[in-house]
Amino acid sequence: MLKQIILQTSPIPSMQDQIHEMIQRKKPIYIFGGLGDMSLGSINAKYLENQGIVIDGFIANQAFIKTSTYMDKPVFAIEDYFIPRDVSIIIGISKWKIAYQELQKFNFQNIFLFDSFSESVLDQISLEYFLGNYNDFIQTYNMLEDVESKESMSAYLQGKIFNNYEALANTYEKFYQGGGG
What are the CA-CA distances from residue 103 to residues 59, 100, 159 (Å)? Predict the structure, then answer.
């Protein structure tokens, strides 16, 4: 069952592939949210800066903006319509599903999601590694006693193998935001 769950996952382009696409587009790059020192947005911004990639600023909902600049970059309200809708936007908050919907609501088209910390510090798990060590993975999976743990493990593997964090977000919503268990 674990193998079936994993193999049905749709792959998402890697962080490096997404960065390459943004560079090739030659459009301004903004980060949505992430106006805190340990946020996904600030971590991604620092990573890109260390790679020589310039971000043009941050975008957030007006209600969350407390300053006009962050990390020496301008901060704009998503409600301001002077920002072209074809810029590249990197989601910079952990509640990425909500952020994605918000960006779509404001007609942004080129939305990217990656976690530079996880992808550059933590080892990815390749599909080949997973399949080659499947007996060890299934043994660990079978040792887990509850549905929450099993779903969390399979969702984590989907993220690490395919860069697809949809199942992990769904698991979080289901078990940690009062959705069941």
Answer: 10, 5, 22
